[in-house]
Amino acid sequence: MSTDDESFHPLGNEWEGELEEMLDDTEYDSDLGMKMAQDAMRVTKGELSEAEFHEMYHDDVMEEFGVDDRPTEAAYEQAQEEQKGTATRMLEAFEGDGEESRRETMKKMGVGAAAVGLGAWGTVDDGPEANLAAADDHSSYGKVENDGTQLGMVIDLERCDGCLSCVAACQEENQTDQGVNWMYVLDYEEPDGDNSGSRNRLVRPCQHCTDAPCEKVCPTTARHTRDKDGLVLTDYDVCIGCRYCQVACPYGVNYFQWDEPSVSTDEIKQTADDMGMDGDHMTDHRDRWVDSRAPRGVMSKCTMCPTRQDGHMGDEKVGTTACEDACPPEAINFGDMNDPESKPQQYLTNVVQTRAERMVDGQSPNRENVQESYNFLEGDVELLEMEYLEDGDHDEIQAALFIQGELAESELTLEDEELREVVIDIIGDADALAELEDEELGTLADVLLGDASEGDVDSDDLDAANTAIDAVITDAEEGVQAVVDRYESREITPAEVEESLALLDGEEEPWVSEAGITDEGSAQNVLEAYAGGEASTFKLLEDVGTNPNVTYIGNEPGPEAEQVEGPVAYSDIGGTDNRKDVLDEKTVGDAGVSL
Amino acid sequence: MSTKTPSEADILRPVNNVSKKYFMLFGAAALALGAFLVAWMYQLANGMAVTGLSDWGSGGGVTWGLYIGAFIWWVGIAHGGIILSAAVRLLDMDRYMPVARLAELLTIAGLSAAGFYILVHMGRPDRMVTSVLGHYHITVNNSPLVWDVTVITAYFVLTATYLALTLRYDITRLRDQLPDHFEPFYKVMTLGYTKDEDEVVERMVWWLALAIIIMAPLLLHGGVIPWLFAVLPGMPGWFSAVQGPQFLTIALTSAISGVIIVAAAFRRAYDWDHIMTDDVFRGLLLWLGFFSLLFLWLQLQQNVVGLFKAPVNVGVAQQATLAHPLYQLSMGLVFLTLAFIFAQTIRPSLFSRTRAIVAAFAVLTGTLIEKILFVVEGFFHPTFEIYAATPGEYFPSAIEWLSLVGTTGLVVLIFLVVSKLVPVVELHAVEHLRGDHGHGHDTDESETTKEVKA
Ligand code: SF4
Ligand code: SF4
């Protein structure tokens, strides 16, 4: 691929030449077209706003075409209220994939914008780097190609921690042998690329390809696509174990059952019964044996859990997979890739928002916490009533307030003994009292609580103890103030994230105070800063023509990428990475060398 | 050259004599086959884990190995054999008439070995019939493996018919001198034979030969078998339009080598120096040289295209292949053979039968290595080579090695058995060598022969 510096388009000079030729073919001014194209690219790179772009060429376009139908028109009008989206996104409005419709569209939308649009449509034949313009165009994926259900996944690689929870969960659910990693997660390095910054990790289930080569080559139809939901499955009763599917699959996701599996079918059935499954976890709704580990001599691979999809594990498991359930950062999103409303498609349309929603869930200080902090500062709420305290512990505050006489004995919720312990803890942490024995601390506490006389202790110690008690309150109060300060300084806290999410979700005034996030532009910035900018999406080896149903968000591994050790080893989760280590034990006359 | 005149008695000698050496060879071959059968039973009982195979990808191995490599090798020998025999008949290459039937038998034996390998390679061979035939109408549209099985079966039937037709002629004429204990077999073979059919059969055989030659590039080793690999874009080591022609050259070189070895063995065993003359060997060697040249030329194509400025995946795969010592050995063997063959053309004194046999063995070894490596290297360097465990490791297990011994035993056994049943040299060939291959009609001519004998 020639990406020349002097070419404005990421596809390089050659493409640019082609474009120029195409423009020459049309009846319109190709110089104007090229200039517009160049600036349109600048729009996608963020160097120029859509509104500016629109304005720059409005007169020229009117003169040339007599009408300015460019999609940026909308942007121009909406520029003030909506800042998200790029020229490319706007171009989606114009459907088109064939050569004819490209040309028509070009005329329709103005040649300059077409240059960008074509970049987006040209994705199929080009490598990942070429698709700068297309990178942000999530919604081109999962375009409804057929009406039927097509289960698949959207996997956010930027969220994956490499913890291998999904691998372990899959192995447990399907009771596969050691090394049969239907789900596989790997870290990789690019040979000369920069491997420092962004995450280079891949989560690799079976891609459940729409045009699955494994299925095409199968001499028995054992490997087949289930009509109901598009899952690519293996009929363990039909497979002859020729392994051609494993040969034809470009992703290396198949695992043959080379020997007797370690878990028997009886055991699988037993587990299914124990779990109260409405089935044996092996046969699906058509009565075909397609789920759980394969028997000896046949092929297996990731199934995307047909037992769950058929409702055999209860309604709540329909539309989930074991790996998805197990993923702590929820990087795996399983569902119908043909349904724009589905979990994965929703995730794709709003990567940053969805990511942020999940990340912020359960985090503090949230909007309520900030509100509460304001309320405290205004005297509407007592310190002890605060739910969220950045700096401070309710028990300690209670003890301190009691000692200071702010709290009546009847208001205490702590038992005497607990109270004493808390006080000892507070004063024990004070630097000035670090030297004291436990017993001396106890006496000090008793003095503070009025259970001993002041004469029993050194007065310096007593002063220090009182200071420590006071500090509990001041620290807590300062903590509350800090929450508000941070909020007002627009530091990105969960509260800001929540506000941004709500704001972009169309809520009228989701902010706690005007000092928070009140405009959509900042909201978008907050989310991007918090959850990462929209990373590009890709499908694995898309040009091989398998039409995979797993879409990734994150870095696409290049052709020379090579696996490196990940944060968690397969042995750490009780698994095996390289299955050959297991299989070699059974090889007759293992020579220990390799061809 | 021998001055002896070939006679019916000559070609009947294997049928009517048994020697201690025959029994010894039979015993050895049966032992070889038996040993592998036992090993196969062990494999069936314990699963394919007894092989050195594993999953490619995170599994650190290769999915297909020696079994498939040897399968292609045997199919190559078989397909080359039938092409050779068809060419002899079609183009009236009378010089090679004495080895035509041997080539056909090599086809039958080679296909048997290959068919056996299909079973051996499978995880569930017991389901072959139900699973494959049961869905044939669907899978035949897509699966190169189904095409393969179809074509192999078709060629087995075709070759068997071809062989049977020419055998009827011979058996009828030589019936009196054939052993009586196989009477039922001869009866079946000559069922409904009339002299009138000779002419028809001859024409049929000619058309069959034509069909074989025409379909060879497409349906035999030039098409269906290489498509098993060449059509898979995920494996750059295989994904190439040159595989068809390449496989065909391998088939032809292997088959010619096979015929040289078998012919030399029979010549030695039955004093057939006046039938399988040095002239035949010289001729075969020349053809071997020619196809070896083609073989090397196509290898060169692959290397140049794969190394010059290929896409990353293709480049990696080709580089690895070229750098592999076994690849170099295989190419070296074929190249040395080629050099020898050219040298002996220029200087005929360099020829000797022993050298021809050595050359044939060298080529067969070369092609076997190339085939196994071809299969294995495909898995070592897939497009998606991201896995730490890729390229994986593979070395055939003892059982896999034994399969080579076993199938060779099977092929030898087939020759030994057939040679006791029917003449392995055609009557036509003897007639031709004797010079009484009249210009008139074949039927008339053989009729006279028969009368003379009577
Ligand atoms: S990834 Fe695609 S080709 Fe590979 S096994 Fe899954 S469906 Fe088949
Ligand atoms: S191993 Fe089984 S599923 Fe795979 S291609 Fe062969 S018969 Fe089909």
Automatic annotation (TrEMBL), chain A:
Thylakoid found in the keyword field: no
InterPro entries per UniProt: 4Fe4S_Fe-S-bd (IPR017896), 4Fe4S_Fe_S_CS (IPR017900), ET_IronSulfur_Cluster-Binding (IPR050954), Ferredoxin_N (IPR031604)
Domain 4Fe-4S ferredoxin-type: 151-180, 230-259
Keyword hit for 4Fe-4S: yes
CDD domains in UniProt: PsrB
UniProt cross-references to PROSITE patterns, sorted A to Z: 4FE4S_FER_1, 4FE4S_FER_2
Region ranges (Disordered): 1-20, 569-595
One Pfam family matching this protein: Ferredoxin_N
Name of the molecule in the record: Prokaryotic molybdopterin-containing oxidoreductase family, iron-sulfur binding subunit
Species this protein is from: Natronorubrum thiooxidans
UniProtKB/TrEMBL annotation, chain B:
UniProt main location, coarse: membrane
Assigned keywords, A-Z: Cell membrane, Membrane, Transmembrane, Transmembrane helix
Pfam families the UniProt entry points to: NrfD
Signal peptide: none
Transmembrane segments: 22-44, 64-90, 102-120, 145-165, 205-227, 247-267, 279-298, 326-346, 358-381, 401-418
Gene Ontology CC terms, in alphabetical order: plasma membrane
InterPro entries per the UniProt record, alphabetical: NrfD-like (IPR005614)
Record-stated family: Belongs to the NrfD family.
Name of this chain's protein: Prokaryotic molybdopterin-containing oxidoreductase family, membrane subunit
Species the sequence originates in: Natronorubrum thiooxidans
